[in-house]
Fold each of these.
Amino acid sequence: MTTHKLNPLIIALDVATGREAFGLVGQINAPDLFVKVGMQLFYSEGPALVHKLREQGIKIFVDLKLHDIPNTVKGAAEALAGMGISMLTVHCAGGRAMLEAVREGVEKGASLDERPLIVGVTQLTSTTEQVMNEEIGIPGSIEKAVLHYACLAQSSGLDGVVCAAKEVPLIKRTCGSSFITVTPGIRPAGSKRHDQARLASPQDALRLGSDFLVVGRAITQAKDPVAAYQAVIKEMNEVV
Ligand SMILES: O=C(O)c1cc(=O)[nH]c(=O)n1[C@@H]1O[C@H](COP(=O)(O)O)[C@@H](O)[C@H]1O
């Protein structure tokens, strides 16, 4: 499993073209880059882009948030795992049989010594409690819903979950410290909140126990992405 020695800062490459993606990674040019290729970039550039990034020694999180019948996600997970990536996502809302199928697919597709981490999306960080209650139809608090999915993910063989930083302590207390938490919705002081609802600063996310911080627009849309990346790293390094 590719758990260890991954950079805890994941850059979300939410850009339209490979050219823009390579422009950004070339500018930042850090030795241990860990980037997220999401729907926009993967759907436009495909697996070829993943292979090209890998050739540069970059670690890759492919975030396609799988959510379909078990047989379909199993095949998708197998194909993704065969690309030599380090992390992938699936929606916990698909239920146990689907989550177990992703795990099976990953094990089938991955090489023996290296399988990607599988993390389950709990409640999107753009979702408020009101939206979850009134539109999605899940009653109660966000924390309770997120914890429910975290427990389901763990008992279905996933390595961790994607959640908001504030929810990390409860998940770690319940599922154990080795159950991985990946937290988007990260905003360094002074940056725009955009469409995110459940936010945290890089320092707060680390202090709350988050294992991986996902940062997109605060870096990729900054006037100076290199300075923005370095500022986040500096902020993270200040947390003892
Ligand atoms: O699975 C994810 O990565 C994800 C889950 C979630 O709940 N919220 C969330 O924002 N993300 C992703 O994290 C990234 C956040 O981007 P920024 O808001 O620009 O930092 C985007 O690529 C989202 O697709």
Amino acid sequence: MGVEQTDKSIILTHANGSTAEIYLFGATVTSWKVNGKENIFLSKKAALDGSAAIRGGIPVVFPIFGPPPSSPPEYAALKQHGFLRTQTWKLDKVLLDREEGVSVRLVAPPPPASFGHQDINVHYVVTLAGHQLVSDLHVRNNGKEDFKFQALLHTYLAVPDASKISITGIAAGVSYKDKVLGGQEFKAPGGSLVVDRQLDRVYAKIPSQEIQVSDGQEGGYKVRFRGFEDATIWNPTEEAGSKMGDMEPGGWDRYICVEPGFVSEWKSLPPGEQFIGQQTITLV
Ligand SMILES: O=P(O)(O)OC[C@H]1O[C@@H](O)[C@H](O)[C@@H](O)[C@@H]1O
């Protein structure tokens, strides 16, 4: 058991031997191993030197999801998925280090001066339990005006073969935007979703707040979310994946992104209040 910090990352080790690694750059969880099996995909071509957002792991998306909106100006000037995934965070505290879990809290630096909104505090708590990995994003508004944002945990779940997985938990009637089809809106049919084409869908307000991924080999994951209401499902397949400079060849076959978030609209956080978005991934 324990928490070890190197110059680049924090490594959590549970009594059962499972481990998790969190890069300070972006507070990106880059690895979660249970019984020697890696559950988080990290591209072999990912930049791990702070020169670009990490391709794979669990990047933290905030305060915008996707390309910047046209206004207001400080949001319009942001890069895709915002700044948290490319800031260098600090280990704030070890919250727990025992059988029930090993848990650390990281703190983000203040937002870039060009964004303003310096009165925002962001913390991230990562907890490694027996067969679970829990991540909680805390956003506190210490300012005097409402603060609006989007947030999402861009989780790359490792799978043996993406073409054989099935994704369930999104009920019939849930509306989604299909970004592959230019953002057209549809209603989910229910049942299971498979990766038989490029997927880039933003599902809004999923009542179950849980998505299951069956890996086609009697294993998989349950991704439960609280505070977050939406989820993006993304796999670029070869069609788009082969055009990504930091994606290893064939990498798109080895993961599915299930990304709980608050992204179908803006979250407005009143002064003095805190938002917590939580993701719990359980091995099944
Ligand atoms: O290349 P990035 O900025 O890490 O984004 C990866 C993907 O992230 C997903 O969440 C988006 O829905 C996709 O549209 C996007 O391509």
Amino acid sequence: MDKLLITGGHPLRGTVRASGAKNAALPILAATLLADAPVQLTNVPRLRDIRTTLELLGRMGACLTQDAADGITVAPAALTSFVAPYELVKTMRASILVLGPLLARYGQADVSLPGGCAIGARPVNVHIDGLRAMGAEITVEGGYIRARAQRLRGARIVMELVSVTGTENLMMAAALAEGETLIENAAREPEVVDLAEFLNTLGAQIEGAGTDRIRIQGVARLGGGAYRIMPDRIETGTFLVAAAMTGGRVRVTDTRPDCLDAVLKKLHATGADITTGADWIELEMGGRRPRAVDIHTAPHPAFPTDMQAQFCALNAMAEGVGTVAETIFENRFMHVPELQRMGADIRIDGHVAVCHGVAQLTAAPVMATDLRASAGLVLAGLVAAGQTLVDRIYHLDRGYETMETKLATLGAQIERRTGTGQV
Ligand SMILES: CC(=O)N[C@H]1[C@@H](OP(=O)(O)OP(=O)(O)OC[C@H]2O[C@@H](n3ccc(=O)[nH]c3=O)[C@H](O)[C@@H]2O)O[C@H](CO)[C@@H](O)[C@@H]1O
Ligand SMILES: C=C(OP(=O)(O)O)C(=O)O
């Protein structure tokens, strides 16, 4: 099992490029199941979750080829299976995203229930309710969602709660349904917009993505096209937090400042100077220690839960006291006990973590428990005194492309230790 060994105390300086967004690439890859002509995707990040998706789609009979750079070509192919098996779904919850496309195009899907994970229970009831409203017959048995439909019918769906992949699944299903679908209380995340733009490139008729009301006029078929995946706003934010914590100066290029308003506002409140261009963001900390900030996670455009662990790490070494309220996932503070092992003074009270910044974190062996928790621990390692060993970084590899290489380019002392299998 791979680990990261980090020697803290080196300010990050320089320029780093943001990769394509994991959370846009995953639904877009699933959406290629809807196309009946070739699709060329670029800016696809090289991540464990992407490899899992390629394996999942490949097992169904889809024909996807990865090119040497950041491209994936999807050739039309007749599927031979409509099953997302447990052994793949358990490693990547986003596998649920094949449910809508399979049902809409092929009228059948058997998708393993994702089950709970480190950050919470994460049920998929709103995906199922929405598809039922469109005429699908769905049973849940033996741990599988078994869905069948002739042709889905457009419907007005008021989502019980704001779900990102729920909105995406329903949008993909509605793209090929008969008639109009209206999704109310839809997620407004930029990745939902990216998926809608991709589907429209293939000939879908989707309006309103990015608002809480998405209108989809179903079409008989979707063709092919070329599409560039949007940049990863969470990876971008993670590098900016790293710059703020280490007192450095980092420019992230090939990114989208307009998707990061809430995060940039909080970084500004830490005392950082931030400048932006059309596709870059630069953070200058000038050797200062950041000030602790209060965070309250909520659906976009509010502060993203996927940046919460990184800001806990920042608050842990910042000046003052910062409270972090997690309102999306019920168990997303798994990084806190590990940060405490590095000397952090954080108390959890229900869904709020109260962080009293300490002047110096100290290195310790720590264990990553989920993707963003891993990122938080890496950031803490960058400023801790001594050598931090972050174990179980397969979580990190789900969502960050060569993170250690990018950080090393910026001056971090970080290296991957390829493991022998023991934990
Ligand atoms: C692949 C992807 O894009 N993942 C992102 C997506 O996850 P994902 O789409 O799984 O997260 P959701 O937006 O669905 O979850 C939001 C909340 O709703 C609950 N819920 C969701 C669906 C449902 O049917 N029933 C239900 O109760 C969840 O347990 C959670 O408490 O959005 C999350 C919230 O921004 C991010 O942290 C993830 O990085
Ligand atoms: C929670 C995340 O991803 P996923 O929904 O794929 O588990 C994340 O990207 O932080």
